[in-house]
Amino acid sequence: MATAAENLQTRYNAIAAILAAGQTPDGQSLSNVTVNIDGEQQDTDKYVQRLYDELARINEALGHAAASGGPTATVISQVMPR
């Protein structure tokens, strides 16, 4: 079973791949004005900004976990708030 840190790194890599490819996982171009995410039309600029914000939260969470040397399981709720 993957650790919380490994799961966060996997999510980080997935987001980075979306941004590098310039398209959503289902192939919608990020140069469009809107993208359809989970059946909802979303402003592409806001969608991309949320991805960058999530990358920043993951970086911060992984940095805190590494600095403390402690477990990273509690980090998930800080990175992926409901």
Largest sheet: 2 strands, antiparallel
- State which percent range the strand residues make up: 5-15%
**Radius of gyration over alpha carbons?**
14 Å
**Number of DSSP-assigned strands:** 2
Distance between the termini: 23 Å
**Uncertain segments of ≥5 residues (pLDDT<50)?**
none
Give the proportion of residues in helices. 55-70%
Please tally the helical runs, counting DSSP H or I stretches of 4 or more residues.
Answer: 3
Largest sheet, spatial ordering of strands: 1-2
H and E string: HEEHH
Structural class, please?
mainly alpha
Tally of discrete structural domains: 1
- Global shape: elongated
Task: Describe this structure in a few short sentences.
The chain is mainly alpha-helical and 82 residues long. It has 3 helices and 2 strands; from the N terminus they run H-E-E-H-H. The longest helix is centred in the last third of the chain and has 25 residues, at 44-68.
